[in-house]
User: Fold these one by one.
Assistant:
Number 1:
Amino acid sequence: MKAHRAERAPLRVKPLGLSGSANFTVAQLIGQAESILVICHIMPDGDAIGSLLGLGWVLHKLGKEYTLACADPVPDPFAYLPASQAIVARPEGEYDLVISLDCSDLKRLGVAYDQDSLRGVPIINIDHHITNVGFGSVNWVDPSSAATAQMVLTLIERLEVPLDPIMATCLLNGIVTDTRGFRTSNTTPAVMEAATRLMTAGASLPEITEHVFNRRPLAVVRLWGRALSVVQLDGRIIWTEISQAMKHECGLSSDSDDGLVSFLSSACEADVGVVLTEKDDGTTDVSMRSIPGIDISSVAMRLGGGGHPQAAGCNLNSSLAEARERVLDELRHSLLEQTAHC
């Protein structure tokens, strides 16, 4: 899905702010652009990958030259999506437009976004996280959407590109994962209507559910066993950590599996679940989930990350031990403040 780009002058646009009609502006800029770089966030989840691939197939239909990029590998549960193997970590070439998907902060694009080579190239920021900082030239941020994939579906309609089964599968994958199988509080009638349109276009909900929730590599199962054996309860916070040594022992190559933190947060004794994962670059990825009524997005933002009230995360440039103390301390204070107001 990576296309060769002939040299041309960069597209120049006047930076615009967020507006209710931002999706119309997005469609216009995509129509003007000739070579497009589409990027999603590090440690990608199903919405990031689904939105990335779904939009990629749309650009293919439009005859655009484009590259799909993500700094981290595609997690195993989403490798079934068509053309997932075409996503690159470090894109090369020149582009006249960058589209960021499902990312609340420019830093979370990681090495896939090279600020030196892309300086001056306009960025379309498409996201549904309430913690989005508005880093784009055009910011289309809609926290009322359950998934960025839902927003991409709206964009497809604006671009007047007919839905096909491949696009629909990628986008439904994003909606299903970000709603945890239509179980989150933001699963509105509009979300169900979007899912119905995608299924009508040929996406199979049972197939997506099987890949996303019901199948995991043996290495992940083994890693869960190791991580669950060292689970700790700190007040109403349940947490565990995954070291590089644990991953190597279990033969795991991928860094992303948010199923574990969702499983932890289901414990009756806890309000917040946390998984701290040591990455091979020495940083620590932090994934958090909470019960309804407990907002962890502010904690994630203070730590340099972002997300939703009940699902958030960040990446800390520190060791596991340092990250653990910092995250738990922030969560203790946040829970104390929130419960004091109840």
Number 2:
Amino acid sequence: MTDWLPVDAYLVESLPEIWFGAVLFALGMYLVLDGFDFGIGILYATLDDEHDRETFLSAFGPVWDANEVWLVAFGTMLLAAFPRVYSRLLADHYLLAIGFVLALLFRGLGPELREQRDEDRWQRYCDYSFIGGSALAPLLFGMLAGCWVFDAPTLSLPSVLTGVGLVAVSVVTGAAFLAAKTDPDLAATLRRYGIGATAAYLGGVVVLLATVVLTHAGGAAEAILSWPVATLVAASVLAGVGGSALAVRGRYTAWLVTAFALPALLTALVAVLLYPTMYPPTEVTVREAVVSPLALNLTTILGFPVLLLVLWYFKFLYGVFSGPVEGDGYGA
């Protein structure tokens, strides 16, 4: 066996880079799928009508638990392939990570407990929990990502702008998802919030990148001036402007596709700004941070089939719950 594949050799030479891409893919899937859940929770704060509230909860009720699988996948894959980065990231930003987990907890408790008691005060506090957790979770997760990518302090401008940008793009995807799933009257209201959030997100990305260049945050300043970053920013502007135009014309399914492109392009931007460095604060590269060849080979053989199974499951899940929703209650 060792004559066929030495223990110090990868299955393929580029396996560390493949795992870097796989980790960022899981991150992107989380930003896309749980991102629209966050957006729904934030937009929930704009509602006064109980029927509309039930419609919102019904829209994401069957899938929101499953969407969080991608957060688990991201953490698991990062730990399996790059344990040094996993440990340093959580150790260096422990409070942000704990705050994010608590926000997820309160976000999840709100809808689950809301239907347990038919009291206005009880339901109002459950709504506060849902809205607050939905807004804080992307903010804190974005700040954590900003600290990671830009080697910035917790309350620095790059980290805060990254968090605010993730909140804005979550509102975009949440509005687009709801518009594609609800009645035209509600969709017309949602598109106003979505278009406004799109403008805020695109403007915020430009301000963030300019801030990083001017402050020389981490090692990302030089990468920002490269053509791959310029291409991704241009693609984001095209997706945002094009999506807004589709929303105005009432083509909500097409708008949803362009809205999902925004967090996907954001993840690609993170990958470009990071690579070949895996953890900017220590300047450790992908190949320096990855586990031993034997461990990575075994993880690849055992883990990638599971990833394919998860992808198939999500295709099946979203196929089952495709189509419009009605306000019949959470999880209907």
Number 3:
Amino acid sequence: MNVTSLLRYSAAGIVVALCAACSGGGSGSTIAPSTSGVGPEYRDGIAWINGRPITAARPNPSGFLNAASVLAPAAKPKSKYFDYIINDYGSYATIFNYPTSNKQIGTVNDVGGQGCTNVLYGYGKKIVWIVAGPEQISEYQVPNKLLKTLAVNSNDFASSCAMDSQGDLAVGILAGPDAGDIAVFKKGAGKPTYFPSTSPGEFFDGYDPKGNLFFDGHATSSGDVRLVELPKGGKQGITITTSDVLGFPGSVQWDGKYMTVLDQYTNIIHQYTISGTKATLKGTVTLQGASDCAQSWIAAGVVYCGDASNNDGEVYRYPKGGNALATLTGNFDEPLGTTAAEK
């Protein structure tokens, strides 16, 4: 597969973000998408380019796609909600208060990648977690007050996060010495305990109500998707076989009824029931007009999309899907993540 552009290096200089939107150097400048491109090299199931692992945004050969027209949200009472569209590693998160408005109301600086909060789905209670650097993840009191920063092992690249109902924080490792493993911070504090898995690199993760953690990544050199479960109380991840085929790893999240996995190639959310080591497809939700939802977040009746290729944030009905309710407008730098919380 040809790749149309490269995106900026992270602050630590160890990761290149890859998608079709735009490209920036350390100064934050951008250049037009390349039409020639180069192909990613797969080593041990992780896509690399120029010797560096890519982020969780998929390669997109179609080039930059213009953002959809902005649709004003329906008139509702003043919102207590805060929605975060999290940009490229080492950049910033853009804050919104949809459904009050679809316009940016603030920023969290020096973060980038993915985020999560202290609920399985819906709006978190007063806090959010955001990846803050290759080896760090930070907790914020909404909307943007820094509470603390936690660290994974040296030279590990933190990709995703999820928090269970007991307050344990799971951070996925995309690349580095512990690639594919899950680092779990007990009660969201201290030093992590590492759990190995069958995946060579972890992209997205999410807990179910029983405390089982599910996460995805590439399985083989061809880029096939592998879904993995770390059972509650388990010591290592086990492979889960899906009844259908996924094109590229995407968000993994409980939606109140099903465990869901977003396919980044199709921008379709797959809803599964899971028994033993088998995931059975029960339904799908199509995010029409999305180009590359790197991470999505299922909230109350809506799902937010951080769209790496459209370079915006989008809001869809959930579980109906279809066309976007709104396109969030503000400053973006290759959105890779999203989450939402209330005061």
